[in-house]
Write a structure and sequence with these properties.
5 helices, 26% helix, seven-stranded mixed β-barrel
């Protein structure tokens, strides 16, 4: 018995099987809906998140610093949305670099938040205007420390290119877990 099957025949069989088992393609309106950012789909959630961010009081100065916190990093008000719960926290920016229209950022969440999530969808909210600027995906690198590398909108890249990691950041963060839908 000869069990050798030509590769071309095997590939045609696999293609036919994949086509027959594939789910129907999504409708165009579903694709367009999936491409929209969450703040356009749920404007009331955005409004609520911005209100919660406005409630976070940031104290500057060495007298207010907690032991163990860097005296050079300015705390960034952060709202963590996870499984229907919202937590107010602070993020400390550890690394901030803009080059070639890309943002490379490392930040650490306040350890009081508790357990670390593996990843977050990060929405950057303009501090002054309270409007969403863009969103990206951040992954856990070590305990409570996250990193992201993303392309920036051209206007934002131009405004932020002179910012140093020790400067007060012009944004606040909304961190959403993958289970938020």
């Amino acid at each position: 018995m000869n069990t050798k099957i030509p590769i071309e025949e095997l590939l045609r069989w696999r293609l036919a099987r994949a086509v027959s088992e594939a789910p129907p393609p999504p409708r165009a309106d579903r694709l367009l809906e999936a491409a929209r950012p969450w703040w356009e789909i749920w404007p009331e959630r955005l409004r609520s998140a911005v209100e919660r961010l406005d409630q976070i009081q940031v104290s500057y100065g060495h007298a207010m610093a907690e032991p163990g916190q860097s005296r050079t990093a300015h705390p960034v008000p952060t709202l963590i949305v996870s499984a229907g719960e919202e937590f107010q926290a602070f993020a400390s920016v550890l690394y901030f670099s803009i080059g070639g229209g890309r943002l490379r950022l490392r930040f650490q969440l306040d350890p009081a938040h508790g357990q670390s999530e593996r990843a977050f969808d990060v929405t950057f909210i303009a501090s002054a205007a309270g409007i969403p600027l863009f969103s990206s995906h951040a992954t856990l690198s070590v305990e409570n420390e996250y990193r992201l590398d993303t392309e920036l909108p051209e206007k934002v890249a131009g405004e932020w290119e002179q910012i140093k990691v020790t400067d007060r950041m012009p944004f606040r963060l909304v961190l959403r877990t993958a289970t938020n839908g």
